[in-house]
What does this fold into?
Amino acid sequence: MTKRVAIFLSGGGSNMRALVEDMQGDHPARPCVVLSNQAEAGGIAWAREQGIATEVVDHRPFAGDRVQFETAISAALTPHQPDIICLAGFMRKLTAGFTDQWAGKMINIHPSLLPKYKGLHTHRRVLDEGDAQHGCTVHEVTAALDDGPILGQAVLSVAVDDSAQSLAERVLVLEHKLYPAVLRRFADGDRRPVMLTG
Ligand code: GAR
It folds into this structure.
């Protein structure tokens, strides 16, 4: 049966767009809702234009009460009945209550070769360490930040003249290939890792 996919984002949503554009034809899933904590997120406007249902759950009124924020997210999701959640640049930490509820059904893309560089500023940190390789990872979401079983990675070679900005742009191109490739497999129940080189 076709899987229903909720996509969470906080910003421009280019990964969401790559996922949505791939969910056609024989793809085992379809988008059911795009949810953001930011009403003005570019990704929300684009999803609306495509006729995809959208939900905005602003985190600010919850003032650090993550559990209440997640209760509001769950309520917003209920009418859309998702089978899978894809985090695509969703920049809020989730508690174990939420990640446990979605264990094995929620995946995330992160702009580093995990387990290296969890958290923020990954491109800067790669340059500071002088790494020869960089890339992105799609993984199952668990209670620990940027952790959980790895479902795919895409790797590129760092060039001598790369800046944090150029790395961000080059990695993003890989993200748009990796995330759809992983979701296709994941929605079919196939958790074998996807490995790509850029
Ligand atoms: C992407 O680079 C994604 O990997 C990153 O945010 C960007 C969102 O871009 N996510 C994280 O850093 C999560 N830890 P997008 O809105 O254009 O998809």
